[in-house]
Structures are given as C-alpha cells and as structure tokens.
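Reagents: none. Just compute today. PRTase-CE domain-containing protein.
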Amino acid sequence: MKSKIALRLLAEQLDWSDEEATEEFSALQLMITHKYDGYQGFQPASRFHVALLNWLSQFQDVAQRRVAFSIIKERLVYITQREMHHLVSLMMPELDRLMRKQIAKELGVQFYETWTDSAAGRRLCLLRRRTLFVGLSDGARIDVFRRYNEGKISNEQVVPFSEMSSQKWNSLIKDLREWLDKHDYQDEPASFEAVCLVDDFSGSGDSLLRFDDEEQIWKGKISKFYDVNREKIGDILAEKCRLYAHHHLASFQAEQAINDRLARFAGDHPEFSYNATFSYVLPQSIVVDDQTPPPELIDLIKCHYNKGIQDNHVGDNIWFGYSDCGLPLVLEHNTPNNSIALLWADSTGSEFTEQHKMNPLFARRKRHSTNG
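Predicted 3D structure written out:
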C-alpha cells in the first residue's frame, strides 16, 4: 500500500482535520521511515502503515482510536538495531570501570591512578584476558560485542552459548595458557577470574534468576550456570570467580529485582561473587499501570483483551504484559511479552470467541523462554 493512500485512510479512521493531518503525518512519517518500518516481525512486503490501519480497525469508534494512537505518538519506546548496537558498545566500558575499581582496591591506589600506574595497567590487561564472555541468547549480540572490542579481548574468550562441553572448556583454557606464556604471565594460572553472562533485555528479571516458592528452589540462567559449573571453581574457574550478569537494556523493575535476587542467591551460593550490570535502564516513568492517566487509556487496554493469549508461563490478566511490567516497548527484532499486550498480542484461534479479538501492531514471535 502506498504511503499516501495509507495516510489518507489513517486520517479517515482518526477523523483528522486537514490541519491535524498535515501536522501528524510529518511526525509519523519520520518515525516510520527511520524506525517502525524496520520491525523484523512484519511479513515480507508488509509495512507499518498496513499494520497500523489493521490495528486501529479493532477499536469501535474515533475516540478509542485516538486514545490508541496516543500510545504510539506519546508513549512508545522503539529501539532500533543501531540503537541496540550502541548499547552493546557501552558494555565493555561498564565492565572496565568495575575492573579498575577492583584493581585499585587490590593495589591500594586511587581509582584514577589505574590509568597511569604501570602495575595497574598490567593487572588490567591480565584481568581482561582472564574474563570469559558468554552469550545467554541469540539476542545477546555477542558477535557485535566482539567486533566492537577487537584488540581489547581475544576471540578465544568469547562464546555464543552457555552450555559448553568439556572439550570446549579445555580448548578455552589451552588458548588462555598460550596467551599467558606469550605475554610474560607464565606464573599466572590458566583459569578465568570472571565470567560475564550477556543478554539483550530483561523486563522482569525472571529469566535470569527467580525463586520458585512451590518447589523452594532457585531457577533461571544464573542458577543453571551455577549448577553446571560450580565444580570448576579452583580449576578452570578461579577461587571466588566473579560472575557478572550484563543486560544491554533492562526495565527499572528488572534492575531492582535482579540486584535483590542476586544478593539473596549469593548468601546460599558463596562460591562465586555476583554483580549485575546494565548498559541502560529504562526509567520507571515510562511504565503504564492502573494509575497512568488518562483513565480512557487504561479502559482501552483492559477492555480490548482476550484471555486466549494467556498460558501457564505468563499467567492471567496480562494486559500490562508479563509480570505487570507495563512497558510501551518494542525492540526491532521482537516485542517483549513484558510490553502492554495491546501492542503485540494476537488472539487468533482463541477459544474465548465472545471476547475481543486482539490484532497486534508489532506482532511478537515467541522465544524459547516465556519469562521476560
């Protein structure tokens, strides 16, 4: 569909005057060109114009459609691939800062002196090489991270998956030993002082770490990594190995939950020391919940809902998204289930035929984990 036709139909759906249409079209077209048309969830040859028209058509009247459009105009946070890659580029500086703090404490120097002190520089070089970077999902963009840090880190200390065979571990240690010998660190053991687990986004923190009250056990990627690798402490992994959990992007809710849970987890699992790091944390002010004005917005979100989008993992009444995160967020490669359901949910095939049929604006593809 040509953009001019789509915009004319959009003006009819929203009952815009000529003056309103002129003002709205220019701003909307800018976002469509530079952001929304790049969404990877659209079908081939489909674009945002078509998705927007279909999405707005599910609402009964102009007033509802205008409220719905206000979500796009005033609240939507859309992260492009370029923006996500920028967040990836911020990861190493964040880790470097923590490494320098650690080294300053070890050597008894000021933080700023780690840039000028030769012993600190040598120690930083060693600590960087003895850090293993591990991708937790396809979205971790570990390949992008590696390209951004050519010359700072070795390809042999970056792996795209957390489940590694003993052969892979042995290969990593062999490469580390060769590097240590080559760079005059012969007296240093070939073991990793730190492991950085990398993922793209966390909305609730549940995928990374959560406590199951029913089973009374810890679950999530941190717990799984601990269970599989704790016996490597003192051998492949150094004593008191630091375990970093880094997300390129996270909600405020996830940041709070992850820090709290890691502190509790550390009490029962002292073999590692734990740190959570983030390239960027979304402010709490963007969250949509029951108190968000205007009331018509919340009515729209809750009334245009179908229970068919629920399952055992995401729970009931997820109009504000999984774990009530209430994020108006879209990532270019997918929409998180922590975002408000009106943006991504498709109730096609739902058994609740008497309820509203939900049409997505940014259709979501389910990932392996349904917890955000």
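Strands lie at 77-79, 131-135, 158-159, 192-202, 210-212, 217-219, 237-250, 273-278, 329-331.
Action item: order primers for follow-up constructs.
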